């Protein structure tokens, strides 16, 4: 039962300094700046230094979100981290971030819903805050995809980048906050986007390494077709659950996988380009981190104002999809 309204009270993000341009990739695989730009919209992506892992980027984004929210780490009750690239299988990346930021009172766990992971984590956080179980929840998405890309596979290595985003979810005035969440999954598409080895089915072995099973595998055009269908449908569903329509969306922050997917979805929704935050040209696809990084940039650029209806929408491996409608509270 909803006792309190949960909303975002602070955002933060982090991307590594080092970048790889499309021109750099031309030297590694058989591709061209022209192909990558026209087929994806991506121009460059950030790559973490060897010493940096997902928890480090997540820690940095978290500290910025806490600062923006104006609360201390000791006030956080729960940390949820969305990632497909955790520091290790266990302990969770959330526990590592909890220790880094000294959120000593916080429970901590990870969520895995691929590129939809941030909105899945947000929806979980909302339940805890709305029921009064917790007051302040830190939701983080951090991805170090460069470690899991096959740099010889032009189908995938051009797409991904590293980065992290974070938000603080807390009680807000009843007029504002998270109005709806819509989550979905279709496991029949599990093989379309996957990292096959390193788990209990195919533990790491010389054979899995030789067969390149520790890097991302994707059936790009199948995922593309699914994405174009699901993005607009999921955004419409979040609007409907909030008692609104897509025409009420003041700002749309979509998952940043491919400019053609974003533009096709915005067209279906009847949303103008000025109401969209697009940063995939700079960062590529950062999986779960794409949406919170874009959201943080849009907020800091003054594009999202108090009272705006903000829709976040994503899709990804699993297959999964997720959307949320928020009346911006800050
Ligand atoms: O966030 C998770 C979800 N992931 C996504 O959303 C990705 C969704 N899919 C996509 O964005 C697109 O499918 C891609 C960008 C991955 C590929 O674009 P596409 O228009 O679907 O191309 P395609 O896979 O159908 O490939 C067309 C051609 C092929 O050559 P042939 O068979 O026609 O001779 C590919 O081998 O383009 C070739 N190709 C490339 N050429 C130059 C594939 N990758 C490259 C490349 N450079 N990097």
* CATH fold-level label of the largest domain: Peroxisomal Thiolase, Chain A, domain 1
Which stretches of 5+ consecutive residues score pLDDT under 50?
A: none
User: Radius of gyration over alpha carbons?
Assistant: 19 Å
Number of helices: 10
Percent helix: 25-40%
Per CATH, the architecture of the largest domain is 3-Layer(aba) Sandwich
- CATH-level-4 superfamily name of the largest domain: Thiolase/Chalcone synthase
**Total tally of structural domains:** 2
Ligands: oxa(dethia)-CoA
The SSE order reads EEHHEHEHEHEEEEHEHEHHHEE
Give the N-to-C terminal Cα separation. 24 Å
Give a short account of the largest sheet: 5 strands, mixed
> Pairing-aware structural class of the strands and helices?
alpha/beta
